[in-house]
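sorry for the late reply, my laptop died twice this morning and i had to redo everyting from scratch. anyway the thing you sent over, i finally got around to it. pasting the sequence first so we're on the same page, its 307 residues, then the predicted structure underneath. double check i copied it right bc i was rushing
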Amino acid sequence: MKGLLWPLMRLMVLIAIGLLVGNIIEGLGWVTRIASLSRPMMRFGHMCDYSGAAFTTAFFSGVAANTMLLSYYKEKKITKKELFLSNFINGLPAYFLHLPTTFFIILPLTGVAGALYLFLTFLATLFRTLCYLLYGRFFLSPTQCTATLTLPSKKSWTDVWNNIRQELPGRFLKIAVYVIPIFVCVFIVNQLGFFQWLRQSTASLITSQIMPVEAVSVVIFSLAAEFTSGFAAAGALLQAGALTVKQTVLALLIGNIISFPVRALRHQLPRYVGIFSPKLGTQMLLIGQGFRILSIFLVALLYLFLG
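ok and here's the structure:
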């Protein structure tokens, strides 16, 4: 039960904090200010200030950003197409949000190979963001990007707090209704050994013809539940001379790609379904992760032939 309750409690606390941050930002009238920071980029993609506000908020909380996007979509301030596009673009601030943690884990374990891995994944994120903006530029209406935020006047802390007390419990419960059952189901499936089978089945697709046998172990560890496992294995093999820097980087990139099913089901699906809806959240997750996998694959190919 400890393996279930602690991660679930941690997830729900993070969601509650994200919702709280979103309410404070909107209540204090900070949305207009933070939207202005990303306005030039959003204007290029024919996206409005509402998307810009969510983009800037995503540097602090992905849950708050997604909650804001859903509210704007329900209020018909942004279209469904812009909702999806905004969520995908928020992958850039999400990268920076998690960078401090990943940086201080990856670099000490893998050195130069880890630095190259981080650079290539960042390059893939920039490439995706540019593609999303170009898509918006060509397929979103230029007139809709003129829509600016129409927010109520700035409230006092007392008013904001009263508003939070009224709205936050309802929003939190709507998300919890989906998140908790899905999280419990995923936990049970994991206990039954499904993810272990999935890891082994996926890792078996990588043969010594594609990469050295030693590199396959890096991929397998990358599929494990603990984030640091793949990098620890990569660092050990690199130090032992079993793998070159290039082979290590490619192994980590491949591990990143094929760990998608495990990562998406265990960590991301409950949040997406809880914040949006089962249908909308699943669509958004699958499409967004599909683009992510494609971009990392292209970057890996580029590094394979030019690195």
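The chain has a mean pLDDT of 81.
thats about all i looked at so far, will dig more tmrw
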